[in-house]
Amino acid sequence: MKPMNFRGRWVLITGASSGLGLEMARLLAKEHGAHIVAVARREDRLLALKAELEGAHGVQVLPLVADLSRPGEAERVHAVAVEGRTVDGVILNAGVTFFGRVLEQPAESFDTMLATNVTSVVRMSQRFAADFVRRGEGALMLVASTAGFAPLPYQATYAATKSFVISFGRGLAHELRKTGVSVTVFAPGGIATEMLSLSGLDRQFKAGDLGIMSADACARIAVEALVRRRELAVPGLLNRFLATTMKLLPHAFIVQRSAALYEGGLLKEPPKP
Ligand SMILES: NC(=O)c1ccc[n+]([C@@H]2O[C@H](COP(=O)([O-])OP(=O)(O)OC[C@H]3O[C@@H](n4cnc5c(N)ncnc54)[C@H](OP(=O)(O)O)[C@@H]3O)[C@@H](O)[C@H]2O)c1
Hints:
It contains nine helices and nine strands. The chain has a single domain (10-268), classed as Rossmann fold. The chain has 273 residues and is an alpha/beta fold. The chain has helices at residues 19-32, 43-57, 73-82, 107-135, 156-175, 194-198, 215-228, 237-248, 251-263, and strands at 10-14, 35-40, 61-65, 87-92, 138-143, 181-186, 191-192, 213-214, 232-233. The radius of gyration is 18 Å and the shape is globular.
């Protein structure tokens, strides 16, 4: 498939208020000249992004405040985004995690995670991809995680949602392969973002540690994968090695090793609520 040229065209990014989503928005505006539909709950962050990108790069930014864990929000985001504009790229990046034992995850936390990481991704993929298919062009990217390649104790529900995203994205990519529409699954390992600090995982994993990427370095690889229309992209040599290892080694071994990583450190001192 021909690479996408986003200059003067609209790209929608969910989770554009921080971390990976914010850095992808910055890169797409600065280096690709894309207009951005920026979706998240924190309006002040989206307004600051609009001021930053419109001022520095002469692109347009539509801040779209939405809580993707709520019923109907995915459909509303699609309707508002396509009103009076053509969206040619969509990055479904918003996501939340829970770190701890499954038996300790509150029901609301799980419901929010499932709605944000899974349900909204399916609903928005269906709507935007249908538009792309009608026009015979478009690029969709789903942000998964290396956590989705094998079961991950103490982030079990999160890893399961990311497994869903990988499976769903790859299946959808095949269904759309002759339509001119690309579906990229982007599966990073650890990134130094709010997700790492809010979940308490930053007490064990820090920026600069082996395998933990900065959000801007990770965003560069993600945007490249979207533009080049790769089907699956795992950023970083170590993460690619781990992803391959997870395919080759028995899952029982991987589960034991990843559990040991947490059991030795973080679980002895659980994150504060
Ligand atoms: N950090 C990592 O180590 C890591 C590793 C692998 C994969 N990932 C994946 O990368 C993606 C981005 O995460 P990140 O690391 O950049 O974390 P982050 O800094 O916490 O960003 C998460 C983004 O999602 C948005 N979001 C969360 N819940 C939302 C909701 N209900 N409705 C709308 N927006 C919502 C947040 O915005 P608001 O709070 O303003 O709504 C924020 O912009 C996620 O899908 C994550 O699973 C992260």
